[in-house]
Amino acid sequence: MTFRFLHSSDLHLGKRFGQFSGDLPAKLREARHAAIGRLGEHARAKGASTILLAGDTFDTETPAPEVRRQALAEMRHHAPIRWVILPGNHDSLQAAQLWSTLRAEAPENVTLAVEVTPLDLAPGVTLLPAPCTTRRPGRDLSEWMDGAVTGDGTIRIGLAHGAVRSFSEEDNGLDVIAPDRARRAGLSYLALGDWHGGVEIDQRTRYSGTPEPDRFKHDRPGEALLVSLDGSSALPQVTPLETGSFSWRTLAFDLLDGDDAVARMEALLPEARLRRQALVTIVAGGRARLQARTALASAVENARPDFAELEFDDKALVTECEAGDLDAIDRAGALREAADALLAEADDVARSAEEREISRTALGRLYAYAQTVAP
């Protein structure tokens, strides 16, 4: 028999995105809710009967009522597709009120994997869930899968949330899942959540990543995994499906003296029509003359309105500057005196690297100011 399902995790519904301002946080929250519909549409199109959510469906243990109820309403809309929700570390079983409310409100096609017991998904297919008991349980909650009894030839699917050894979202080293759990427990597939970027641990063990990116760390699109299992012993066939509506990208480049800094940056940026749904951090390093650095900063500011969010990190970019370059600021007078002083401080090896970079940055701002007031 063939059993086909979607593996997803870390929807973090209701995430506040407090690091951003304006209407962007609301747009990002709405994109997370919309990911539910995209998962349902993929499942229907690909003939998957079940969607496994491997933890952190909600961002907190106390999601707002509208977050919770609207999510369940969207899942109900995609019946008869079955949704299986596993408690993660953000929405663990310690939030007793949340899970009792979900039990009362969940539609028939939503299953809460809140008990450490085998759960039948289809004839000959059994799910072995490992719900998070607390935010940091401090033990391998998947260990019980090894001794779980199922019939001969049963397709055994594990569902867990947390880090495998030497691989942690929060690097705490305590909450670990044995990386060979699939082998130990005779699993056809182990669906993991917690890591927000898709990762293959082995042929039967994967993190799906979040369906809607929420940080720059992983630098990859939102995805879910379509998993097909042809019997209990065959290797799973896994196909990534793109699900994200926003992209989060870190674009890094190093400059050499004489490079066209603006051209280097523009070559990395997405095309104009895609920028509205893009959050981008530009990281510039290497070395650049004062004029090139100022032109680069100006180009970033000019492009900023095209993007959902555009950040510029030039802390690793060293400014090359000579006395002759300061003529573009002024040849004499107070501005030139200030420029000479800043250049001397930037080149003073007795100062710390941080102090010299502050002087270089101030010199760049002075240069930019001089260009704006020049006749």
Number of helices: 8
Examine the coordinates and then state which fold CATH places here, giving the name of the CATH topology of the largest domain: Purple Acid Phosphatase, chain A, domain 2
Helix fraction by DSSP (H/I, runs of at least 4):
25-40%
- Termini separation: 79 Å
Could you state the oligomeric state of the chains shown?
single chain
Radius of gyration: 26 Å
Q: What pattern of helices and strands is seen along the backbone?
A: EHEHEHEEEEEEHEEEEEEHEHEHH
Q: Uncertain segments of ≥5 residues (pLDDT<50)?
A: none
What is the number of strand segments? Answer: 17
The residue-averaged pLDDT reads 91
Kindly estimate the percentage of residues that lie in beta strands according to DSSP: 25-35%
Q: How many structural domains are formed by the residues?
A: 2
CATH architecture of the largest domain: 4-Layer Sandwich
Biggest sheet strand order reads: 4-3-2-1-13-14
Please provide a brief summary of the model.
With 375 residues, this protein is α/β, with parallel strands linked by helices. Helix content is 28%, strand content 26%.
